[in-house]
Every structure is written in C-alpha cells, then in structure tokens.
Amino acid sequence: MSYEPSTVEICLTLGIGAIIALFYRSYVDTLPLQGNESVLDFGSGSGILSRHIAARLARGGGHLTCVDISSRWMKVIQHTLRGFHNVTYRLGHITRIDLPEASFDTILTHFVLHDIPAAERPLIVNTLARKLKPGGRLILREPQGHGLDLHELQALTTAAGLAAQDFEAHKVWLGPVYDGIFHKADLPQLVTPEISHSSDVFSINLIYTSDHS
Ligand SMILES: C[S@@+](CC[C@H](N)C(=O)[O-])C[C@H]1O[C@@H](n2cnc3c(N)ncnc32)[C@H](O)[C@@H]1O
Fold first, then answer.
1. Three-state DSSP state, 135
2. Looking at residue 186, what is its pLDDT?
3. Cβ(70) to ligand 1 under 6 A?
4. How many structural domains comprise the chain?
5. Residue 198 belongs to what domain range?
6. 19, 31, 38, 63: which one has the fewest Cβ atoms less than 10 Å from its Cβ?
C-alpha cells in the first residue's frame, strides 16, 4: 500500500488546510498539553495539525517528533514547520523506525488508523503504547463510518494496555468522529497480541511477559 500523495492532493490539502487552519488550532487548544512535554505526532501528513502543536510546545519548552511513512509529506511538513526548532522528523513505518521505547509523554494520532489496513492496526497501536512513558497518553481522533468502528478501537487499545480516560463519539466541524484519550495502564509489557479477525468480529488474545493473572 502506498501513502505517497499526488501533487494535486498535496496542493488541495494545503489549500484547504490554510482555509480551515483556525479549526485545527482550536482543536489543538483543547488538547491536555502542559507545553513542556515530549510529543509524537504519528502520521503527521502535511503538518496542518503539527504546526499548532509545535507552536504550543515551543512556548513551554516541549519537543515534537513528527513521524510519517510518506517522503512527499515529510518534505511538505519540513517546509511548513521550518520556523520551529523544537521538531524532529522521522520518515518510515512507525513499527520499523527506531524510536526509543517509553520516551513520549503524549502521542497524537489524528485521522490515521482508519487509513491503515485492519490487519496492521494491532501492531501499530501496540507499538504506540510501547513508545509512551508509563502514565503517558494516547490522544486519538478518527472519523466514524470509515472502516474503524468503536468495538475495534476498544479492542485495539485494550490489547495494547491502554485504558480509556475519556472517550466520545460525537459530531465536530469535520463530521462524526471518535475522540479518545487513553492512559498507558500499569500493566506488564505486552508481547505481540494474537489477533484474529473476520469482517465483523475481532478477537484478541493477550500474552504478557509475566503472568499477572
Ligand atoms: C489521512 S493522513 C492524516 C494526516 C494528519 N494526521 C492530519 O490529520 O492532517 C494519514 C497519514 O498517516 C501516514 N501513515 C500511514 N501509515 C503510516 C505508518 N505505518 N507509519 C507512519 N505514517 C503512516 C500517511 O502517510 C499520512 O500522511
């Protein structure tokens, strides 16, 4: 599967992004950030969201890491965020780049998971959970009705040792979305969860490094 955008898609995204920048900014303003954290923006794309996070963190001494698998989006975001000195860029598949374990206070994933094949999602969410510091938070926004439903989201996060702190299925200016904040629960480290899925059933078998049953 290729995530490389066409030139038309890049131009459209940047054009629309400039028009709706205020909505993205107001979303970032609602996020529970102190400003001094280490934040990972997973699937940062064009950076229309990341630029507001970078600005918030720049004021508080925090740091932003932008990860994207697309080299074209990576070039775009490096240009968009060129004025910020508190941003690191990492190109590659989130499960294959060598980000340190337990190193982020907050991970943001905005409109990314639904775009990823269902079979890949468990490993991706598990990887995100491993990259969070103990007590760290995963902040997630996904569109409703685009191939990722509530039950799968619950199964994916639970399997990764993430506990829902706040979860809402509601309508925002972008349309109906799931908004969730998940805490990295105080659980033993998960090895790869065994997952089987058919079109409408998800079953996850949790395997931990130590037996806490
Ligand atoms: C729909 S875009 C969302 C971009 C941005 N978060 C936003 O809301 O504007 C999804 C992004 O995730 C990236 N992506 C998809 N799978 C990825 C993976 N496995 N590792 C890193 N980035 C990935 C894509 O290249 C794309 O830029």
1. strand
2. 65
3. yes
4. 1
5. 7-205
6. 19
